[in-house]
Structure formats: C-alpha cells, structure tokens
Amino acid sequence: VAFLGWFFPGRSVRDELSNEGVLPVRYFPLYRFIIRFIAPVAIALVFLNGLGLLKF
C-alpha cells in the first residue's frame, strides 16, 4: 500500500477522483506527489516510532 502511487495507473486514479471526468481535479498533481513521496516516508516514520527505533 505504501508504494501504490508508483504502480497504480495515474489515469485510473484521476478517473476515480473525478467521477469519470464529471468533477474537476485541479489538485491531482499535488495528490499524486503526496501519495508517491510524502505518504511512504510518513508510514515508515510511524512504523519506526512504533518499534521504538525513533523517538518523536
């Protein structure tokens, strides 16, 4: 799940977010960036914190 942004087709994600093109998705590039880069790092940080390897 952490790397879904790299393997799931962007067109499919855009279609889901826009209700098959009915709704505008101006934020799609930002959404894709967050799913690809920010979310995996955040998941890793939470995981490492849960293991006690990081303290924050």
Architecture overview:
With 56 residues, the protein is an all-alpha fold. The protein has one domain. 64% of the residues lie in helices and 0% in strands. It contains 3 helices and no strands.
Question: Which geometry do the CA atoms define?
Answer: elongated
Structural class per helix/strand content? mainly alpha
Largest sheet: none
Overall mean pLDDT stands at 89
Count of DSSP E strands? Answer: 0
Domain tally:
1
Low-confidence sequence ranges: none
State the order of secondary-structure elements, H for helix, E for strand: HHH
State the distance separating the first and last CA atoms.
24 Å
Radius of gyration: 15 Å
The assembly state of the depicted protein chains is single chain
Beta-strand residue fraction:
under 5%
Number of helices: 3
